[in-house]
Prior knowledge:
alpha+beta; Immunoglobulin-like; 2 domains; 5-stranded mixed beta sheet
Amino acid sequence: xxxxxxxxxxxxxxxxxxxxxxxxxxxxxxxxxxxxxxxxxxxxxxxxxxxxxxxxxxxxxxxxxxxxxxxxxxxxxxxxxxxxxxxxxxxxxxxxxxxxxxxxxxxxxxxxxxxxxxxxxxxxxxxxxxxxxxxxxxxxxxx
Length: 143
């Protein structure tokens, strides 16, 4: 009797692992990457202490950006103080889902990385100060 009960429990555990196992594994593998970024008052994008960093992202992945925007010298009528737009380096193509306006404080955005590998650039689209033209960072999209 005991051997039969042990066998039934083992069979149930194995069956449950076959059903749940792959889902659990893919959930762990697909945990979304979070990038903490500062759009600073000195008109620079920063990650940690590094100004104008280079990001390497995988084509097609979804990434959560947690962006802290600090007030620069000017702002738009709608209160945005910095912009955050992705453009393709070779032809200047802009990606609509990546055209964001940042207001003071912390904001989170989940963005899909372009499917085409190559070199891109994130630029500020709000004239935030005299140094506005220098507010950009390089993005490398890999396959």
